[in-house]
Recover the amino acids of this structure.
């Protein structure tokens, strides 16, 4: 992944909210999130129990919220508008890592291809930077004032994604990787070559989530969230096999992420 681009985007992400708050009239919240994730990829069979259990990863992130219901520049509530009282803008930087194994009937075959698949493992380190717009059905003002302890929300957004996949085989014989049977290079369209590729790359993702906040005290919340990220690339895991010979390759890569977070309200 391009570290210069990531560093520039991260710097902009950190500085922009604080430099513009006086003009826009909002307060800031910061936090950290972490939790396990399921990576839907070309390792194993999609919707297969063993694939979902074994291809798990872990993710962490730092988050920033623009809270339009309260103005930090005057320590007062903002205008009583529906948008201000029901929406927050969240920006975040995430890092997650997943190890992959092949599961399902293809890898269970007592053939050379099955042996190669069982011996073939991989991993992917993924960095994401982006924004989501969160919608709270209940009043943000009332929740912040302690009128109720739990505030549910949904969100939709987009992320820039950088990824570094890796793969290897426990077999040390010639042709140990299963590329000669399942992952032989082929054209998948627009001149793109399919197969195996552990080169770093970047793409975009659409994100959506369903979550709740629990009010700890005036200045802090606990966050529980279930998220879905759909990547606009089939190379995030390093695999893009020919679907003619490997039926699991039907979709772009995606993750389902369950995370818990701690959110702190800044008074500036």
């Amino acid at each position: 992944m391009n570290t210069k681009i990531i560093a520039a985007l991260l710097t902009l992400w950190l500085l922009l909210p604080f430099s513009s708050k006086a003009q826009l009239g909002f307060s800031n919240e910061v936090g950290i999130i972490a939790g396990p994730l399921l990576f839907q990829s070309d390792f194993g069979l999609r919707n297969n129990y063993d694939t979902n259990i074994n291809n798990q990863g872990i993710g962490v992130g730092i988050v920033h919220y623009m809270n339009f219901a309260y103005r930090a520049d005057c320590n007062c509530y903002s205008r009583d508008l529906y948008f201000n009282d029901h929406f927050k803008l969240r920006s975040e930087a995430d890092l997650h890592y997943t190890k992959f194994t092949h599961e399902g009937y293809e890898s269970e075959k007592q053939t050379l291809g099955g042996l190669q698949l069982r011996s073939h493992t991989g991993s992917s380190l993924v960095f994401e930077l982006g924004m989501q717009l969160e919608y709270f059905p209940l009043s943000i003002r009332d929740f912040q004032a302690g009128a109720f302890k739990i505030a549910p929300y949904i969100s939709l957004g987009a992320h820039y994604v950088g990824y570094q996949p890796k793969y290897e085989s426990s077999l040390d014989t010639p042709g140990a990787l299963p590329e000669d049977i399942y992952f032989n290079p082929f054209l998948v369209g627009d001149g793109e070559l399919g197969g195996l590729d552990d080169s770093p790359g970047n793409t975009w993702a659409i994100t959506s989530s369903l979550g709740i906040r629990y009010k700890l005290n005036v200045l802090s919340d606990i966050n529980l969230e279930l998220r879905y990220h759909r990547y606009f690339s089939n190379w995030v895991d390093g695999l893009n096999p020919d679907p003619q010979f490997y039926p699991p390759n039907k979709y772009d890569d995606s993750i389902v992420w369950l995370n818990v977070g701690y959110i702190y309200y800044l008074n500036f």
Observations:
- The radius of gyration is 22 Å.
